[in-house]
């Protein structure tokens, strides 16, 4: 199993994965290892994957060679996505046409294209899927079945229209940790997290891969404590402090 997620934000984007890869041998035996699944491909590109790590590594090396030129030559992000798709089809045409040797790999790219962030997914058939503030969340890998319901809970709780990188970093970490804790096996920490954050002067984006696990764990613990107080009816009301998650207005009672 594996899990990778992407979140499109008002001031950038966040990509996070677990750290487990599974290596299978010809006799059916498997070995699980921890390995990087997110890469800073170049100044304006973050590369992440789920699925077959060997295929992903071939794609990563190929993109490292071609992307700098394509980023310059492409007129639009759609054009860039089509160029990448065409290259994938050329690389793996013999596998795609043979169902028994299909491509078990999904690629996610975070790109700063002509000054704007783009979150692009290449899955079945490698057709590009674009995400934006209206379609802000994507999960892939076999842990998707655990990540999506939890994200639905968070989306129902938070005002996602105001999702910033600060908030998305916490949500991403929380989602991956949730999958690690609830899956049946094959998803392991530590959480890997990269993001693009718009600079304060508005001139470009910074790529950052640092992660403060202790800070996120403490915030998640605090949130769980607040939920516990509300559910079990504590006498003392504790106000929710701002800054942890985007607040959503309470629903009207029917």
Automatic annotation (TrEMBL):
Gene3D superfamilies: Glutamine Phosphoribosylpyrophosphate, subunit 1, domain 1. This is Proteasome subunit beta. GO terms for biological process: proteolysis involved in protein catabolic process. It comes from the Bacteria. InterPro entries: Ntn_hydrolases_N, Proteasome_sua/b. The lineage of its organism: Bacteria, Pseudomonadati, Pseudomonadota, Alphaproteobacteria, Rhodospirillales. GO terms for cellular component: proteasome core complex. SUPFAM superfamilies: N-terminal nucleophile aminohydrolases (Ntn hydrolases). Pfam families: Proteasome.
